[in-house]
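ugh finaly. both done.
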Amino acid sequence: MFFLQIFFIARDNLASRLGEGSVTALNYGWFIMQVPETLIGSALAIALLPTLSEIFARRDRELFRQTVNRAIKVILALTIPSAALLAVGLEPVIPAVFGFDAQGSTLVLWATRAYLLGLMGHSLLETAARSFYAQQDARTPLYLAALNAGVYIVAAIALSGWLGAPGIALANTTAFTLEALLLLWILNRRFPGVLRVRATLLRALLASLAGAALTAAVMQLPLPTLLSALAGLAAGGLLVLPFIWPEIKILIKL
């Protein structure tokens, strides 16, 4: 919790030195990204923790590996397409819902897109950290959280001067994704096979490209702006489903 608060303190401090609306854009972008992150990453990880703890207490290493592996597959299949669809479909939604002018909407949009690049990393981190907690190892996530905070501050200082507010969001994406990948790498060394997710990753990427392209195409239809965005997101989501259906079935079993 200490290191998590550092992110918000550093973010607002750096953003307050940038142009007008930077703090607001980062806050709104963070909240928008947190909606799918909470529904996917937090919900799944919180539900899995008691199961993982019980499995580890029984010393069933193979079942522990399988359970974590399945959770990672579900997260990849849900977060990558979600981030792609939202990145494309949010442009007309932000001014319609939040009432920003053109300049403010553009700033919020790009901050949100930078955060959405980290949707996968944030969601993976939820499960990765709890996989260590289930082993009664709280030190490893703590040490990497400290490293994460240092990486974030350095990256945010560098990127904010180059990209402005979206650069701070991109620093957040970089730091949290790095932390998640390092935790998963350590976990994979303890439980070889945890990261066997190549097929899921490829299908999620293909689904993202197809879904985002369809969303963009539907948004060109002569419909009211907000309606075209919602229709595009719905169409893109339906197109994605067949690609990730194996992971949907895993989620139901989990």
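ok and the 2nd:
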Amino acid sequence: MGKWIKRGAVALGVLLVLAAAAAAVGVQLAQRKMARQLAVNVQPVALPAEPAALDRGKYLFATRGCTDCHGANGAGRVFVDNGKDLRIKGPNITTGAGGVVAAYQPADWVRTIRHGVSPAGRALMIMPSEDYNRLTDADLGALVAYVKTLTPATGTGAEVVLPLPARVLYGFGAIQDAAAKIDHALPPAAPVAEGVTAQHGAYVANMCLGCHNPHLTGGRIPGGPPEWPAAANLTPVANSGMRSYATPEAFIRMMKTGVRSDGSKIQVMPFESLRQLNDTDLRALHLYLRGLPAKPQG
């Protein structure tokens, strides 16, 4: 018995040493990845000044998740904090004290929003650029134009504090940064006429890709804390969330309230933004999602 206990202790010690070595390698790889330089070919977009375009930009800012990370006033906000080793805060994107965009050139806005790359050429760790990459030039220009009108506010830059396991997983490629999720060679999306059509619904659904994956089949949310539930499968497969919303009215009610058809509350979804989507966007999104081919979870 003593011999087996001794062998077990040695084996455990070896495993601990290997785990520590793997963690050290993962952290080093993460540091190198965060410091890498990315050369992205970007073209600035026209920034409109017409009231209608600024209204469109304000709508996009409110409904596409910008307020969830940057706050309604753009001064930045903490949106993930477990009180220990995980804290994520969006930066101040006004021209006030502590803002990060004062020196932005027109191309820098495109590089940051559409490609997840900072003006200095480094990948942004937390930025849902995979959702914004498919914005049309007109919508991207309207969004930037509106952000530039925000009242200067005092704030700070981004804060990204990740636990050791997350940093190791990032180093080994199991978690990706914003820039790694994007095909940077894709041309800007073509304009889509607004209306209750599947085509417009597909355009609106681009905002869902970061959590529900490019196929909208759900699964674990990339980079999300371990306690977060898996994102729902948005295709109409049996037992999926979309099978519960046969009518656009039922779907709109869920998007406005954050409550499922069975009365249970949905976790994690950014309803602060989603509940501000207009009727046309919501009905088009419902039409598009209900028309997708059924695919298995993930």
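summary for the 2nd one i guess: The mean pLDDT is 89.
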